[in-house]
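To the wet lab folks,

You asked to see what we're planning to order before we commit. Fair enough. Below is the target structure as tokens, and below that is the sequence we designed to fit it. If anything looks off to you, flag it before the synthesis order goes out.
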């Protein structure tokens, strides 16, 4: 039986909730398989998130890893295509650490591309009526660090891994911030899981950006 590892994050930067953590809990609560789903809410700390993710990978040997996090200000689901080997934190993480111009993993490549079918995922989410796009920057905070960790090491073809940024949930969004209902965010993650499991070759269509 195939195993999917789905992660979100705890709240950070003064927020009371984090829609990524809330959404992965919602997905797990209603998961019917048939695949095995392992869900975890990671700390928003560079050291702790990497350590917990690596422990989960060793323990469960997932076939698919979908990590998720909040990107406040985005209007839809963003399926990340690239992780940089870079920690350049504009704000401290939840442990007070604020690395600047440091690699996520020393002596590793400068970047890793997602091995999830990112274009197929974005297309399938949009087909369900939920706004989504392919993104080419996962930032340089803990989200990008976790994505790079998920992709670094192992042999090509060992597993499909990547990262999805979600907007604020409408139920808890700060005033004036774009958002989606938490149920839509959770549905987008369910679609991402199913597409990742069922897609052997990613779609090919123009999804780039000019800026």
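Sequence we intend to order:
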């Amino acid at each position: 039986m195939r195993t999917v590892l789905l992660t979100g994050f705890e709240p950070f930067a003064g927020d009371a909730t984090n829609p990524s953590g809330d959404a992965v809990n919602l997905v797990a609560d209603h998961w019917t398989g048939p695949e095995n789903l392992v869900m975890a809410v990671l700390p928003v700390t560079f050291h702790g998130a990497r350590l917990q993710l690596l422990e989960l990978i060793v323990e469960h040997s997932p076939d698919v890893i979908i990590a998720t996090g909040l990107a406040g200000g985005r209007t839809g689901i963003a399926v990340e295509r690239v992780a940089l080997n870079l920690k350049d934190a504009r704000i401290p993480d939840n442990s007070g650490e604020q690395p600047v111009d440091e690699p996520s993993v020393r002596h590793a490549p400068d970047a890793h591309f997602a091995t999830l079918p990112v274009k197929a995922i974005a297309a399938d989410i949009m087909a369900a009526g939920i706004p989504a796009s392919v993104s080419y920057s996962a930032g340089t905070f803990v989200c990008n660090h976790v994505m790079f960790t998920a992709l670094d090491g192992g042999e090509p073809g060992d597993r499909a891994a990547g990262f999805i940024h979600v907007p604020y949930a409408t139920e808890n969004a700060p005033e004036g911030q774009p958002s989606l209902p938490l149920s839509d965010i959770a549905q987008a993650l369910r679609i991402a899981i199913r597409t990742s499991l069922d897609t052997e070759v990613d779609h090919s269509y123009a999804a780039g950006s000019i800026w």
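Structural context that might help your review: The first strand starts at residue 3 and ends at 9. The chain has a mean pLDDT of 96.

Thanks,
Computational group
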